[in-house]
Amino acid sequence: MQLQLTSPLDMHLHLRQGDMLKTVAPLSAKTFAGALIMPNTVPPVDSKEALLAYKEEILNAVNNFTPYMTLFFKPDYNYEFLQSVKEDILAIKLYPAGITTNSEGGVESFDLKQLKPALEAMSELEIPLCIHGESGGFVMDREAEFIPVYKQLASAFPKLKIIMEHITTKEAAHALLEHENLYATITLHHLYITLDDVAGGLLQPHLFCKPIAKRPEDKEALLELALNANPKVMFGSDSAPHPKSKKEAPGCAAGVFTAPIALQLLAQLFEKHGKLDNLQDFVSGNAQKIYNIKPLEKTVILEKKESEIPKKYGEVVPFMAGQKIEWSIT
Ligand code: NCD
Ligand code: ZN
Known about the structure:
Blueprint: E1 2-6, E2 9-13, H1 18-31, E3 34-37, H2 48-61, E4 66-72, H3 79-85, E5 91-94, H4 112-125, E6 129-131, H5 142-156, E7 162-164, H6 170-178, E8 182-186, H7 189-192, H8 195-199, H9 216-227, E9 233-235, H10 244-247, H11 262-272, H12 279-291, E10 299-303, E11 307-308, E12 324-325, E13 328-329
Parallel strand pairs: 2-3, 3-4, 4-5, 5-6, 6-7, 7-8, 8-9
Antiparallel strand pairs: 1-10, 10-13, 11-12
The structure holds N-carbamoyl-L-aspartate (NCD) and zinc ion.
């Protein structure tokens, strides 16, 4: 059995910089037509110069792949600045300060008055806002606790497209449907694992990420949205490579590396649930509509043929390393 996908898109991707970028960017470019590139580099992408330099670094590492760029949200972005970068970005990514990898310069307070000028300008300029939606509370409750902020922002800025990044809970899955201007990305790993897989037996550092994987009923709520290619959701891998030495260590870095095997494992999952027909929309069609983009043409053919996930890509251990999977890229 074969499956043909047209112009797959990964709407949440970490490519890092330097040698790591040179290792991982071509792996995404092999199977994806484009990706939304996260700005949590060191230092973050928060100026036009940094943005253009980062885009060039990516383009130098790939062929036939569109890096859809993002800026790291700062409350002091004004209309003139945003207008000057509008053509170079697809979205702006907001991180609460310190909530995840390299987010120290993020937003300290969700006081609407403080955020209003930047968000109003984004709304007027039609620049979507992507949010890492977690509070600073108890780790399992962080996403659910953040939902009032999503709702407040969605109501206060009805013309602003807000993307709830990497949702992991049934609460987020429900909130998404209540506001016309809320959308969401869903990762591969949150469709496969729960907290039990991370910490229920021996600790699995390569499954440790932010937001942490939740309960079975949460995973079910995500599956319901993804498998039916609900038009409010799109695939965003949140593939976040860290070297093995930073993962298999005390103080394990957060992030799961999935980019090179994402489509194969999505095909396996969608086939298992009898939903292969919906995969094209989940990995491309929905994102095209939400972001109003026409990706470059790229055809990817998957085949139902057993393959084995490599144990490492450079210094990075991928999701399900060494395991057999049912689908391969031809
Ligand atoms: C991401 C990273 O390493 O950059 N880590 C993660 O666990 N997902 C950052 C993020 O998206 O939270
Ligand atoms: Zn991420």
